[in-house]
Design goal:
single chain; mainly beta; Immunoglobulin-like; 2 domains; 5-stranded antiparallel β-sheet; 3 helices
Length: about 270
């Protein structure tokens, strides 16, 4: 056990996760504590573990208006902001980050336009972004494109450290964090938008009605005011010749919702 601890310390000293030259992933593998990794990070097994500078990581997702959000809209562009909060006066900072689909921990490889001093590497078919040199700023901002609709919740995993710049792993501090962002579902307001575009005309009607607007309906039902079905059709043109005069409901069934309109037969 002592030999293993000694080896880990020597290895970590060589790779320098805070890095004066390269990032941790390029040298030794992923270390964000994301699912599928070893669970270790530089700070948990002898590297940058001294506890100096008291680093605490803060992750946030920011929309194009500069507002921090708690859900993402598929296909839209965002900024992922990592802040390495700290005490004292570190000489620099390092980090590593990955984004995964919560459901099955597969990669969401949508980071782009990386800032100076960072690079991306592919590990386990995942896009990891990390420092390529010691960073002087404790705030890292990455461009990120939200995945396609139906992806579900996304988890961001990050490790970061604050270092004293003595080219060893002593006297530094490290921390990890994660942020989980759900996919924004279609709001009821959006549903109303298309529902209001569905028209039944003429109304009042005598012999014939037409359906216009969204045409991918499953079927159309005419109901009395007690909710009893009296007629059903799959056509956008419906004859009322067999329906008595009165007030009815016309229910238009779609794959993702229902539109109900009042119908007056004269």
């Amino acid at each position: 056990m002592k030999r293993l601890s000694t080896f880990s310390l020597i290895l970590c000293s060589l790779i320098l996760f805070t890095s004066n030259r390269i990032g941790r992933g390029k040298a030794a593998g992923p270390a964000t504590t994301a699912p599928g990794e070893s669970g270790q990070y530089c700070g948990s097994f002898g590297c940058h573990f001294s506890g100096n500078f008291d680093p605490e990581l803060q992750l946030s997702l920011i929309n194009e208006e500069g507002i921090s959000v708690d859900e993402y809209t598929p296909g839209e562009s965002y900024k992922v902001q990592l802040i390495i909060d700290h005490s004292g006066l570190p000489a620099g900072f390092g980090f590593q980050m990955v984004a995964l689909k919560d459901e099955d921990n597969t990669a969401i490889n949508n980071f782009s336009n990386l800032p100076p001093g960072t690079h991306e590497i592919n590990l386990f078919n995942r896009q990891y972004v990390e420092h390529s040199q010691r960073l002087l700023n404790d705030t890292i901002i990455l461009d990120w494109s939200a995945p396609e609709s139906g992806t579900g919740d996304v988890g961001f995993y990050a490790a970061g450290n604050a270092v004293n710049g003595n080219n060893t792993s002593s006297g530094d501090g490290a921390d990890t964090t994660q942020l989980h962002i759900p996919e924004k579902m279609t709001s009821s307001l959006n549903a109303f938008d298309w529902a209001n575009q569905v028209n039944v005309y003429p109304n009042p009607a005598n012999e014939l009605i037409h359906i216009s607007g969204r045409m991918d309906f499953i079927n159309i039902e005419i109901l009395d005011f007690n909710g009893q079905g009296i007629f059903q059709s799959n056509n956008s043109e419906i004859s009322l010749s067999n329906i008595s005069s009165g007030i009815y409901l016309i229910r238009i069934n779609y794959p993702d919702g229902v539109v109900v309109k009042k119908l007056i037969k004269v």
